[in-house]
């Protein structure tokens, strides 16, 4: 007798401004002052009685990172209304998800932060940009090619709190990473019931699962250009983590970004449904062409 497949939870809605309920509306990150965003980010008070939580993009079941543990991690505020994660891949380039840039014009990028409320945190840099490149094949319905780039207006100086993450080599494209332990980081919601994002940068490690197993939940949207992780035990990304980096430890001990937080189950982040990421090795040529970054063979 064939096993009965698990019912499929609804996939995240179309990633548009109007339907981005998974980037919690009851606590919005806004720049404190204009212009030049020099004073950092100020969390707005939670709206009484409001709670949204349709989709997942946050860190649940994880740990609080130390300051500088993930020096490539950035926080992105889009049009003063929504928040995503991202990563520094060169001195003036940020890698994030396509849905974190597609419908937006103005981006405030916070680098070198651990606690978003600590405006005097050492090593923090805040930069504004409108220069974005969204993948020309980005499809918010099928959630394909969910990748974009933000170009910073000038080079960022590296420090113990700000540094670039390594991109995969072309030779890694043949590795599906199944069974490997990967780590995702971000300021997303720490639980399904949380009223807003985490003030502290958090991280969690999970194993990579096969795309075939992941497709049992999400169906045909799971293509070879995506990576899925097993989130059993409530260890996952969640609301607010979108666009953030999924990394693994290379043979030389250096972290390599292999995924970008893309989507999860509308049922919630702690329910054990797979988390889906854009597979970075599928877009190395696109990144190299658009940034000029030389990627190892």
Automatic annotation (TrEMBL):
SMART domains documented for this protein: Tryp_SPc
Pfam families: Trypsin
SUPFAM superfamilies (alphabetical): Trypsin-like serine proteases
Single GO term (MF): serine-type endopeptidase activity
Superkingdom in the source lineage: Eukaryota
All copies of domain Peptidase S1, residue ranges: 59-292
Alphabetical UniProt keywords: Disulfide bond, Hydrolase, Protease, Serine protease
One GO term (biological process): proteolysis
PANTHER family: ACROSIN-RELATED, HYALIN
Stated name of the protein: Peptidase S1 domain-containing protein
Organism: Ladona fulva
């Amino acid at each position: 007798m064939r096993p009965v497949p698990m019912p499929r939870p609804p996939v995240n809605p179309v990633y548009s401004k109007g339907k981005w309920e998974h980037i919690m509306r009851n606590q919005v990150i806004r720049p404190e002052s204009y212009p030049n965003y020099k004073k950092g980010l100020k969390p707005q008070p939670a709206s009484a009685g409001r709670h949204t939580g349709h989709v997942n993009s946050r860190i649940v079941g994880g740990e609080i990172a130390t300051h500088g543990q993930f020096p490539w991690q950035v926080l992105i505020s889009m049009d003063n209304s929504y928040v995503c994660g991202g990563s520094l891949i060169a001195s003036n380039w940020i890698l994030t998800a396509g849905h974190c840039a597609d419908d937006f014009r103005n981006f405030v990028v916070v680098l070198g932060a651990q606690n978003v409320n600590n405006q005097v945190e050492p090593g923090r840099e805040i930069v504004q940009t409108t220069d974005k490149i969204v993948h020309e094949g980005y499809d918010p319905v099928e959630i394909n090619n969910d990748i974009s780039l933000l170009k910073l207006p000038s080079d960022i100086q590296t420090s113990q709190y700000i540094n670039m993450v390594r991109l995969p080599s072309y030779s890694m494209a043949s590795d599906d990473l199944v069974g490997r332990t990967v780590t995702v980081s971000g300021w997303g919601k720490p639980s399904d019931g949380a009223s807003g994002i985490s003030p502290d940068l958090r991280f969690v490690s999970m194993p990579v699962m096969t795309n075939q197993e992941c497709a049992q939940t999400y169906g045909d949207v799971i293509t070879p250009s995506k990576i899925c992780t097993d989130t059993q035990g409530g260890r996952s990304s969640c609301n607010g983590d979108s666009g953030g980096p999924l990394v693994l430890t290379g043979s030389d001990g250096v972290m390599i970004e292999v995924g970008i937080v893309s989507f999860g189950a509308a049922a919630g982040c702690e329910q054990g449904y797979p988390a889906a990421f854009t597979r970075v090795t599928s877009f190395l040529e696109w990144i190299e062409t658009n940034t000029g970054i030389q990627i190892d063979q």
